[in-house]
Amino acid sequence: MLFPAIQPDKTWHFPVSDTHTLYIEESGNPEGVPVVFLHGGPGGSCEPGHRRFFDPEEYRIILFDQRGCGKSKPHASLEQNTTWDLVADLEKIRSYLEVENWVVFGGSWGSTLALIYAQTYPERVQGLILRGIFLSREEDVQWLYQGGAARIFPEAWQHYLEPIPQDERGDMITAYYKRLTSENEIVRMGAAKAWSIWEGTTATLMPDKNVVDHFSDPHIALSIARIESHYFVNHSFLSPGQVLDNAHKLKDVPGFIVHGRYDVICPIDQAFLLNQHWSNSKLKVIDNAGHAVTEKGISDALVTSCNQMLEILS
Question: Catalytic residue at 291?
């Protein structure tokens, strides 16, 4: 069960480059175990409910919106926006907050970023709590955006196809990227909503209007669609198989992996493979869930994992 809702104790905007300023907030116990929350997308944002996975008496809870996301500025910007910029931002935030090392919590794209960060700076990571594993391999991206998931959600897939002419559908990501970077605002926004609604529709095991409505919000849709397509046309700025190839670097980092059995956005084989490659991880499969963090089985397992991480660290 989620912890009761709390308000942030501090919020501020933190410049990380000449272009980008990040929204950051802190809540919970200032003397507690530091935990940083990495939202999904890339292009998503932090929400008030994300504070509720952590015991506020035990954790120092740090949330931030990644470059171009949420309340960070400039909104939906693709300039200086790569995986490695985000890894560097994490180090800037950690150093600024005078945190020696921290627990890293990430879901979906946030799991990718958490893993890349932990592989780059294992000495800075006390533990990992990950949900909806996304390995960012070409096959994982193609599954969702080039027709694999269409076999499970054929009606929603038709809506996703609509903005793209027949002769460009052989490479949906490139076709969408072209429209999402168009000078024409109507073209840009139409593509953003179609892309984002496809993702929101496929996120849960049972249809959830609240999730689809969240993804339909124009502000959220624009950053999700633009930034995701930017990352995916650039292969997430990673080498092929990088996440699994470097999993051995996590041998001293304890971790929990929570994954829905019927996750259509990030099929469960990704979590299974990561667990096989990372000896210090425990995989929790949620049999009645898809991808969304709001699904009860997933949120309950994440709260339990956060509590168990405290036991490990003590």
Answer: yes
